[in-house]
Amino acid sequence: xxxxxxxxxxxxxxxxxxxxxxxxxxxxxxxxxxxxxxxxxxxxxxxxxxxxxxxxxxxxxxxxxxxxxxxxxxxxxxxxxxxxxxxxxxxxxxxxxxxxxxxxxxxxxxxxxxxxxxxxxxxxxxxxxxxxxxxxxxxxxxxxxxxxxxxxxxxxxxxxxxxxxx
Length: 166
Known about the structure:
The chain folds into two domains: 13-43; 73-161, Sandwich (Immunoglobulin-like), CATH 2.60.40. It has two helices and eight strands; from the N terminus they run ααββββββββ. The chain has helices at residues 15-43, 52-72, and strands spanning 75-80, 84-91, 95-96, 101-107, 116-124, 127-131, 137-147, 150-161. Strand 1 and strand 2 form a beta hairpin. The longest helix is centred in the N-terminal third of the chain and has 29 residues, at 15-43. The protein is elongated, with a radius of gyration of 29 Å. The mean pLDDT is 89. Keywords: Membrane, Transmembrane, Transmembrane helix. The chain crosses the membrane at residues 16-38. This is Cation transporter. InterPro entries: FixH (IPR008620), FixH_proteobacterial (IPR018037).
């Protein structure tokens, strides 16, 4: 029986190499998780309402108010183009409705950096407009029309602006 004591030349994978592979693998996984967690926390607050308990207590009153507004039949129409936002308040049977003030709140579905609010200026009975350069993408628009201190129209609409057009 012959014993071969010759050492093979070339690369030998040692425990130190395995440690390096493990550190690189788990370091990559941990780094990616940290980057994604940071983006998740900083890109959107995740809040629909600041205090869900208070919102739950106000829910029934808001539903009743919405039913009362719907019973009046007054409706609104949002028109968005590249440079302007227009909102028309009307009744399907009687036409434009006299309105004191219209406010529009534009929100991105994810992220808060581009959100903005605007009070529209009356241009005729029931028609309001305001200048704003609309960025393309998805928007959630909440419009409130007020007459004599009472909300007569309150609606939320999701729109897609493509090349400045709704």
